[in-house]
Design a protein that fits this description.
By secondary structure, the protein is of the alpha+beta class. Among the domains are: 73-125, Thrombin, subunit H, CATH 2.40.10; 129-234, Methane Monooxygenase Hydroxylase, Chain G, domain 1 (Up-down Bundle). The chain contains 6 helices and 7 strands. Helix 2 (129-138) packs parallel to helix 4, helix 4 crosses helix 5 (187-208) and helix 5 (187-208) crosses helix 6. The longest helix has 22 residues, at 187-208. It is elongated, with a radius of gyration of 27 Å.
Length: 253
């Protein structure tokens, strides 16, 4: 049910009451009621207004226009790999919509996406083999750690995972992966790392025609072959900076 629009009320001024009183002394002119001031939070470097200190995340790019057919494996940004069960026209609230029914077996969920909104929602087909190989090659690079609080980095990592972009997800795995002899991950680092690995493994399984467990093992074996140097510190713009040895290290909670 649509909400009723808010109606602004203006309080009566002393002018109205002064007109009814004896004209013994002129009533002082009433000051106009002050209008409420709505101020936006001050803009901070690297932040979007209204985000209350959250790090700026680049908006998700729209997927290229694609035609989907029944049986296609697709990637929905916030849910990962699913399968197009059918495409059908249905009537919803008196409007006929052509909907793509996508099933996610692992979550036992079916999602219906209007064909007209599929591109803006970020729905896409699986990455090509070359695109996925480029994402795997990204894992060989040194971790790039922003010089900022862990809570902000965690938000950025989660945004990359939910973008559905294999390159962005690979960046999360690259930055949080630990080789033998390196410090262990914290609990929250481990959670984000596993979520990113799960997304990559699901898409690899669909490309290879195997199950996710097999793909996850293959991905894990690949990571074991990578020997990386020390992590690189970067600023908010991604440019490398000299490590600050005197700065306090904000441990991941």
């Amino acid at each position: 049910m649509p909400t009723k629009p808010a109606i602004d009320t203006v309080p009566e001024t002393d002018d109205d009451t002064a007109a009814a009183a004896p004209a013994a002394a002129p009533a002082p002119a009433a000051k106009p009621a002050a209008e409420p001031q709505f101020r936006s939070p001050p803009k901070m470097p690297g932040h979007m207004p209204g985000m209350h200190g959250r790090p700026q995340i680049a908006p998700r790019a729209m997927a290229a226009k694609e035609d989907f057919v029944e049986g296609d494996y697709v990637v929905y940004p916030t849910h990962g790999v699913g399968k197009v069960e059918r495409i059908a026209t249905e009537e919803i609230s008196g409007h006929k919509l052509e909907l793509i029914h996508i099933t996610f077996e692992e979550n036992r969920m079916t999602l219906r996406v209007p064909v007209a909104k599929a591109r803006t929602a970020g729905l896409r087909k699986l990455a090509t083999r070359k695109q996925f190989d480029d994402a795997l090659a990204l894992l060989k690079g040194r971790a790039r750690i922003k010089r900022t609080m862990w809570s902000r980095r965690a938000q950025e990592y989660e945004a990359k995972i939910n973008s559905g972009d294999p390159m962005a997800i690979a960046e999360v795995v690259r930055d949080l992966h630990r080789n033998a002899g390196q410090p262990d991950q914290s609990f929250s680092e481990r959670q984000i790392y596993e979520a990113a690995m799960d997304r990559l493994a699901a898409e690899m399984a669909a490309l290879d025609g195997t199950d996710k467990a097999t793909a996850a093992a293959k991905l894990g074996d690949y990571l074991k072959t990578i020997v990386k140097g020390a992590a690189v510190e970067v600023d908010a713009e991604g440019a490398e900076v000299e490590p600050d040895l005197e700065a306090e290290v904000d441990e991941a909670e």
